[in-house]
Amino acid sequence: MIPEKMAGVQLTGHGGIEKLVYRDDITVPTPSTGEVLVRVTATAKNNTDRKVREGLYSIDDEKDIASFQIGGSPTLTFPRIQGADVVGQVVETGDGVSKERIGERGLLDFNIYADERRDINLTPDYYGHGRDGGYAEYVVVPSNQFYRIDNPELADAQLAALGMCSYQTALHMLTAAQVKKGEHILVTGASGGVGTALIQLCRILGAIPHAVSSSGKEQALLNLGAESIVDRTASPDLKTAVHKATGGVIIDAVMDLVGGEMTNPLIDVLIDRMAERKTYPRLSNAGASAGSTSQILWSKIYLYQVHIFGVSHGTREEAEWLIEWIRDGRLSPVLHRTFRLSDIHNAENYFAHKSGDYIGKIALVPDSQWQQHGAPFAS
C-alpha cells in the first residue's frame, strides 16, 4: 500500500549543507497522465547537486549566486528534492500507462526535455532541479524515461552508479567532438563519475583513453580501461607529463572536467606537434572543478584551429544507446559506497573531501530500503 507521507531530503535554499533538511512528512506525489510513481531504492550523487545547492551556475561575473536556467527562466524553486540518477520500482501508473509496468525495476533518464526531438537538447533541465528527484522514498517521472533494467547481476545501488547524469554527459562529450575508433583521448578528472564513464565509453567506441588523475588510483583506472595514467601532481609541465605517460602518442581530443588553470596546459597538449596530427585538435568541456574562469590566448585557438565544445546534457537518442549498453553488460558500475538518505550531511562532506582511494560514485539509499539496497555497499 502506498502511504500518504514519505521521508526525503529537501533543499531549502542556496547555501551550505544546513540547507539540506531531512523530513518524514513530505506528501507522496501522484502520477499524472503518462507518468509512473517509483519507490526509490537508490540515487547516485552528482557534483551538480552540490553546485546547485551552492548557487554556482552563474553565467554573469557580477552575480554571486545563480541557478541553472538555460531555458530562459528559473525552474529551481524551494523546497526542492534533489537527486537525478534514480533507481527504483514502479508502484503506480498514471492515465495512459499500462498497469503491467507495476513491479518493474528501472533507471531514470534524468533529463527534462523541452520537446520530443531525439538528436538535440538545446535547453536542458533535469529531475532534481526543475522537478523533484530521487532523494526521497518516492518520485514521479515520465513513463517513457524510466527504463526497465532486469540485469540480476546489478544491485540497485550499482545500477544507480550507471546513471544518466554522468554517463550521458560523458557520451555527449565524445559525440560532440566526433571521437572515432583508434583516436587517443585524454580524460581529466578521470576518477570521478563522468571520468570513469568516459574511460568505459571510449573503449566501447574504439577510442583509447588516457587518464589524468592524482596518485593512488592508477590500478583502478587501468582495470577500468585506461591505457595510461598521467599523474597531474608529478610534474608542473602537463605536456611533458602526458608525453612521458602515454609514450609520446598524439592526443586527438581532450575530455575536460576541470577547467580553471588547467585549460591552457590542456590546449598546449592538443596543439603540440601539429604537423603530425591527422585531425583538428578538439576539446570538450563539461565541468570546472578547478574554477569557472580560465585565461585563454585566443590566437592559440584560431591559429591552431582548436575546436571547443561545451557539454551539459545529452539527447534522447544517446540515452537509448546507454540503456542498451547497460542491458548488454557493456558498462560496469563504479560504486564507491552508499549512505543512508538521513545521513546526507555526512555524505555531502565525504563527497566534498574525497579520500585518496575515492573512485566512482556514492549512492544515497532511503532508510526504509537500507538493509536490502544500502548496507551491502556501505564501506
Provide structural commentary.
The protein is an alpha/beta fold and 379 residues long. It folds into two domains: 203 residues, Medium-chain alcohol dehydrogenases, catalytic domain (Quinone Oxidoreductase, Chain A, domain 1, Alpha-Beta Complex); 145 residues, Rossmann fold, CATH 3.40.50.720. The chain is built from eleven helices and 17 strands. Strands 3, 4, 5, 8, 9, 16 and 17 form a seven-stranded mixed sheet that branches. A six-stranded parallel sheet has the order 12-11-10-13-14-15, sandwiched between helices. It is globular, with a radius of gyration of 21 Å. The relative contact order is 0.15. The model has no long low-confidence stretch (mean pLDDT 94).
Task: Give the key terms.
379 residues, alpha/beta, Rossmann fold, 11 helices
